[in-house]
Amino acid sequence: MYFLKASRALGDPDRRHWHATVGHAVSADLVTWREVADALAPGPPGSFDDVATWTGSVVRSGDTWHMFYTGAGSAERGLKQRIGVATSTDLHTWHKHDGPVLSADPAGTRRCRPPSGRTRRSATRGCSARPTAGTCWSPPAR
User: Fold this and answer.
1) 114 CB contacts (<8 Å, ≥6 apart)?
2) Residues 93 and 110 in one domain
3) Could you list the residue range(s) of the whole structural domain that residue 118 is in?
4) What pTM did the predictor assign?
5) Is 27 found in the same domain as 90?
6) 110 and 60 in one domain?
7) What residues form DSSP beta bridges with 52?
8) Where is this region: Disordered (predicted)?
């Protein structure tokens, strides 16, 4: 099982959020679990995922497993999230591919104003606020 892992030793939830790894645990009976080495950790300085890695999805293609995960980088203070991919043949040792495989298109994002009045960007074309509770609009054309 792969899971979001953030050390409680960091205390502050924000620090935990920005230092997350993709943890890994195994079980023979799905009752008793043993944690093994992390599957993925933040990349080296300057990489698109040098701040945090968050869990994603694993799919198999032939004899190779592909883990698609979310990465956040220091270049944008962790505010721009991208999708990366790592591959494995044994589900224990993962090799990250260079760079993201998917990045949000700034022209395809929307600004959302939830009921609180705070504005935030959404990488999807929708808003997290319900349409009746918030207002969404597309960015102006350039």
Assistant:
1) 120, 127, 128, 129, 133, 134
2) no
3) 106-137
4) 0.69
5) yes
6) no
7) 72
8) 94-142
Whether 142 is in a domain gets the answer no
Q: What is the DSSP string of 108-133?
A: G-EEEE-TT---EEESSSS-SS-TTT
Check if the beta carbon of residue 69 is closer than 8 Å to that of residue 59: no
Q: Both tokens of residue 103?
A: 């990045």
Cβ proximity of 100 and 71 under 8 Å: yes
* Residue 105: pLDDT over 60: yes
pLDDT in tens, 115-130: 554 444 444 444 333 3
- List, for residues 30-62, the tens digit of each pLDDT value: 999 999 999 999 999 999 999 889 888 999 999
Q: How far is CA 78 from CA 18, 31, 74, 104, 140, in A?
A: 8, 36, 5, 14, 24
pLDDT at position 10 is 62
For the chain, what percentages of helix, strand and coil (3-state, to nearest 5) are there? Answer: 10, 40, 50
pLDDT at 106: 65
82: closest CA among 98, 65, 95, 69? 69
